[in-house]
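Could you join me in thinking about how sequence relates to backbone shape in a protein? Label the sequence line and the structure token line clearly, so we can match residues to local backbone shapes. Once you have written the record down, we can walk along the chain together.
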Amino acid sequence: MTKVFGVDIGGSGIKGAPVDLERGALAQERHKVLTPHPASPESVVAAVQEVVRHFDHQGPVGLTFPGVVVDGHTRTAANVDKGWIGVDAAGLFGDALDLPATVINDADAAGLAELTHGAGQAHRGVVMVLTFGTGIGSALFVDGTLVPNTELGHLELRGKDAEHRASSAARERHDLSWPDWAERVDEYLGMVERLFSPQLIIIGGGVSRKHEKFLPLLTERGAEVVPARLRNDAGIVGAAMAAQAAAEAH
């Protein structure tokens, strides 16, 4: 099988690796660079080139983006430079890498990986994957089918974007203890649950590595709340899955 490469573009880091799609796991240890600031299209493309060339990869590349992505075009840019709005990102990355490129919302990619290879396997009904990092990403699935670009980190919570109160970056920015941060996450999950009534909520992003510090502090609720099984590799795996699906569709 052609090797497929996944790149996860985040607000603080850009990481990538070849992916073994049968196992849903990285085929090699990932390579990471810091996200440039400002995270303009030109500077992010250069960083992505560095990550992909580190492996001398030839073949399809899937890339996540922290915002709304429609037909390979980036429509919003909450945690990167506003120059991304309206860009043909798939074309931009494809030209720069000289490889077939597919771009997908970052949380949607993590969700695809978790539902196929992780904590959401074989779950029907409404499943939500929430990634806590620089912002809060969301992926909504109904009977295994993705409803793309939900971007629920921008729901209003206490008069501001929820991700400004309850993201992992907000915990660090406000120097919150785990119990204090868990209280904010709990309030956010309660709001999401009232809106969508999910049966399962999967918590991903970098903070999922430390799930034992905050998940036990959350209120018992109708939805089962579990940590992501692929942890912070889910975006890379999901990006590669999207690239493979695009390659098979052509």
